[in-house]
Write a structure and sequence with these properties.
This protein is mostly helical and 153 residues long. The protein contains six helices and no strands. Helix 2 crosses helix 3.
Length: 153
Amino acid sequence: MRLIGRVLVVLILLGGPALAVQPDEILKDPVLEARARTLSQELRCMVCQNQSIDDSDAPLAKDLRILVRERLTAGDSDQQVIDFLVARYGEFVLLKPRFSLHTLLLWLAPFGVLIIAGAGFLAAWRRSRNAPERAEPKLTKDEEARVAALIKD
């Protein structure tokens, strides 16, 4: 049964796009390689910044991919690898920042913007509902006579 699982992992890895991972980086153990690929997709390339190290061809990304594989081979858990890289490079290395006190604004700002926008729309809607209807200004007798004269001509 374990053999079937390993074969499936290898087939899944071979069936997907190779991305930037070079053949010399791939681990012989398919389970460790799958863990390494998963971790690599969660880590930011410090050069490209909007790509994971799994997608990046930058030399630093390759070094980080190798480092992840070395740590996994040494027996580190996924969390230990992440913690090691965060300790070394800071939380910027994570593509998805952790929810903590100093990232609170980052996580809650979109909700704040939605609440403020909703309050603005509600206020505008109430104002338009409660506003007296704008009446057309009435014409004076002289203006009515002039319009009537223009229409006759």
